[in-house]
Predict the structure.
Amino acid sequence: MKRICIYPSDVEAITGKSKKTAQTLVRTIKDVYQKEKHQVVTIREFCEYMGLEYDDVFNEINNINKKRPA
């Protein structure tokens, strides 16, 4: 099963930010989307907030090697 939510450790790996900065970013996204503490941030919400391509982030988090055209 593929993951659809994103955690601070994923944000760290994708953005290269520190653990504390990644945690703050996830909290900020939760605030923007008016989520409660127990609710998770989806990959789509993260991508919309950060301006990143959903497919690229989804594939990275789920370890999907997508072949790119040469």
About this structure: The CA atoms of residues 60 and 69 lie 17 Å apart. The mean pLDDT is 94.
